[in-house]
Design a protein that fits this description.
Elements lengths: L13 E8 L5 E11 L6 E11 L10 E6 L9 E8 L3
Parallel strand pairs: 3-5
Antiparallel strand pairs: 1-2, 1-4, 2-3, 4-5
């Protein structure tokens, strides 16, 4: 039996990344870097993934550090939204 007063847990993925492009309208491209171990050689590698992020107010600039969260599909490629700006570009 579920209690209606407690909020549901949010299981959506959250990532931190660096804005690499803001040329589109209401969309920014964020590069997220993950450190993974190579399966055979056990060397640590960096894997970079480009995420298309919804930026409603067009307030992100190239070089900003942002936290993004998974969301429903907003367009063909856009599946993430900005949660907060961690650090502005200098």
């Amino acid at each position: 039996m579920s209690d209606t007063t407690t909020p549901r847990e949010n299981h959506r993925k959250v990532r931190d990344g660096l804005v690499t492009s803001n040329a589109m309208d209401k969309t920014a491209v964020v590069a997220v870097t993950d450190r993974v171990r190579h399966p055979r050689y056990s060397k640590t590698m960096q894997r970079t993934t480009k995420l298309f992020v919804h930026d409603e107010d067009n307030d992100l600039n190239v070089g900003d550090r942002v936290r993004v969260q998974e969301t429903r599909p907003l367009s063909k490629n856009k599946r993430w939204r900005v949660v907060e700006v961690l650090e502005r570009a200098k």
